[in-house]
Prior knowledge:
This protein has helices at about 5-25, 30-35, 40-45, 105-115, 140-155, 170-180, 195-205, 210-225, 235-240, 260-265, 285-310; strands at about 60-70, 75-80, 90-95, 115-120, 160-165, 185-190, 245-250, 275-280.
Amino acid sequence: MNKNGKWVFCKRAFILLVISGVLFLHFYIPRFITEIKNPLIETIKTKHIIASTSFDTNKLKGKYIHFKSFDKTAFTSYLTYSNLDTVRGTIILLHGIRSNKESFVKLSKKLSLAGYNSIALDSRAHGQSGGTHCTFGVKEKKDISVLINLLNQQENITENIGIWGQSLGGAIALQSLGNDKRITFGVIESTFSDFKTITNDYFKYHVGFNIKPLTNYLIYRAGKIAGFDPDDARPITYCKKIEQPVLIVHGNKDKRINITYAKNNFANIPSTKKEFIEIKNANHLTVWKTGGDAYFNTTLEFIEESILRNQSQ
């Protein structure tokens, strides 16, 4: 092959490479943002947030509950009943991204011993639930309302229903509190205020740099692929509608989701019963470990006070 032939070959190869890169960027990269069960991500993701324990019907007084949401997506959850004769309340438990309901096995046991039902849910596209894409609260808040309908109708649970969410679960919980007033209190841990902002933050956190126009384009494409409006995935917007008691919790060493977002969410909640807890030296994954029993007891006190407040109104 002469020089001209080599030049033509290299030129065509370069053009093909650029076109392939653009197509990959347009069609596939956005899926990394929303597609939870993406085969490539499944092979490279870290396993430390996935709990190894599981719900044991022989040790826990409870049962699996399966249901279909507004768009026929199938969901799996586990309802743990109170270990006491009287039930103080029922708490919906929402896990973080790429985690599952099994991360709440120990918390479910603690809540049961304290007199609470709890229902740990595999969120949309997570765990044993159906769906392909996470929509960061846009569709998930509707899933929560369907779950509450089921608790009302099948379990005769109609009062003192609360919600406890971590990270992504916290964002879903805030949107659910603003969307469905049947939820009477919320515990929100380590979450963000705006989907677009946190996605830009995550690109910088994981890649080391962020090109905002490119990231925003990928977010737009992710929304198109997953069938939701990224502009609606803004917990801080729903915070403005929350009148129920809310406890906002965040670690001051969280490098994944800055504590500033938690403070912004808190400032926008009009509820007259709201509290903010800053867990010193806790990062995104160690709020429970660092806070310890003192944190759990404080949270229980907040929940008890919130229920008493609701009953007196």
